[in-house]
Each structure stands twice: as C-alpha cells, then as structure tokens.
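Example 3.2
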Amino acid sequence: MIEGEAQLVPVGPQERYQLNPELVAAHWNQNSVGALVASPANPTGTLLNRDELAALSQALKARNGHLVVDEIYHGLTYGVEASSVLEVDNEAFVLNSFSKYFGMTGWRLGWLVAPQDVVADLEKLAQNLYISAPSMAQHAALACFEPQTLEIFEQRRAEFGRRRDFLLPALRELGFGIAVEPEGAFYLYADISAFGGDAFAFCRHFLETEHVAFTPGLDFGRHQAGHHVRFAYTQSLPRLQQAVERIARGLRSWGA
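Structure, written as tokens:
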C-alpha cells in the first residue's frame, strides 16, 4: 500500500532471536526508515528488556529512524514482566490487541499507539483498511478490565506457565534443541537438526502418523528456519503429555 519493502535481518540464539543495535548498524541503508520488532515474540517467546529497548531506540534515533514494537503478547510472561517500549521512547509506535492475553482472537480488535503528529494520517489509513472496529467488539472488550475478569486472565497465564515448564524439558529430553528458553507468549522454537530432514517433512510425518500438529519454522522466517519447528502449548497439560508420548513414538519411525 505504501510501496515499502521489508528487509529481513537474520537473528539466531546468540541474539536471542531479537534485533539489536549492532544488527541495525550492519543492515541499515539509505532506504531504511525504521525497524519492526516483537516483544514477546512469536515463534520464540523471547522479549527485549527495558535496557535493550532503550538501546534499540537510540540506534534508530541516531539514524532518524522509527521504532515499531509489536506488544501483542504483553501480559503473557513467566517469571519476568515485559517492558513496553513507551517506557523509554514516547515517539515509538506500539501495536497491541485483545487477541492474546485477553483471549478475544476472533473479535479482531486491537490498537495502535503512535506519535501525535502522525495520528491524522493513520486515521486515513484505518478508514481505508477497515473503517472502524465493530461497536459490539468494543463493548465486549470493556469487560476485560473488570477485576473478576482480570483474575481469570491471570489464572490462565499461570496455567500457560505450568505447560511451558512441562513441555520445555520434555522436548529437550527427546532431543529437540531449544537454545533459548521462552519468557513470554506460548511457543517453543525447536531445532530438529539432531533428527535430520527438513521441517515441512518432519511436521507432515507427525501430523499423518501420530496426529500431532506443530509448525515448520519457514512459516516465520528464513534464517535456518528449514530445520526448526514451533510448538504451541495452548492445549491442556494432559493433552500435552499425550502429545509428548506420541512424539516419542513418532521419532522412532521418522526416517525408518
């Protein structure tokens, strides 16, 4: 729509799958206008802390660039609290939604925080994309902020934490390489190099033979994604335990 072209920046476990000032310096060119990051991130579950966000903000400001942060998984963190980029940069753009922490995925309701001088242009963009958010969805979202509703969300977050704490060591024990432990969202990004083959074939094998679904890394990027898969711990603990048993069985038949 705005005739821009995204430049993908390779990141790996050594960067905790996140952009940093050194990578900005290495990849910035005369056509660059800003950077988009997600914290916490899908598919890795990693996040940028306050100091890292501040350093990234300064690296972009030094180049007259804009920082856009997708904070859609804020609220879904385990053992840490995710900092908002607005704590260190009031000129940053923030994307968020009721879909994840608030569990309103199907309602398609979110928001954008932006500098005042660009709001009018963003309103024009919004009017051409979707006109406005449905009134029914907006009224439903108000219930999210009731104390009894927030209590439910926090119970749900604690349950996600228990699932993560089960699935992470279970997959590692089976031989999956999980170099960086997720601190947020509800995903595990795993290296399957130890088993051989490519991620698409690997995922298809388990879907067809064991009826366990997880996602090839190429759905999320290109850098070494062909031998990575993403697991989502959005099912109950008993279902995850059953899935691990099936994965263990499927590994015995993989490549046979």
